[in-house]
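task queued by scheduler; priority normal; single chain, no ligands, no partner chains; default sampling; output format set to structure tokens
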Amino acid sequence: MLQQYKNILVPIDGSFEAELAFKKAVEVAKRNDAAVHLVHVIDTRAFQNVSSFDSTMVEQITEKAKETVKSYVQTAKDAGLTDIDYSIEYGAPKAIIATDFPKKLGVDLIMIGATGLNAMERLLIGSVTEYVTRTAACDVLVVRTDLDNKSIQKPQQKNKKIIKKK
């Protein structure tokens, strides 16, 4: 029996790893004639300790998230995917990705990047990916490779200086 997925959830956080998961999800969706649901979760816990919190900060973050997911939607449509949508949510990413959205949308596959946070954030609050793989009721594919299934290095940050040995 060949497994066919019909509703694929792809969490997008702007990271390189999330982009890899997105690219693979588009290809899997095309082969399975499946829908892709992009979700960007704005972690509201990040605002709890901001003393000068105002709504313009949330609005700016929301606008940036909209720009990001809309560009992903357009990329997917340009690649031939017709059934794609997105949502920007507010709250705890772990629960929204692992439980809430799969139930709400009938998700049968979550395709998620291997990491999205830096090492210190993972140490302090735990990996969203790790939580999703442990608790989601549907299949979870952790994406670590490119479209050719080759391991690739994360791009270096632009402001880092490269020291050349002579």
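post-processing summary
- The two ends are 58 Å apart (CA to CA).
- Residues 157-166 have pLDDT under 50 and may be disordered.
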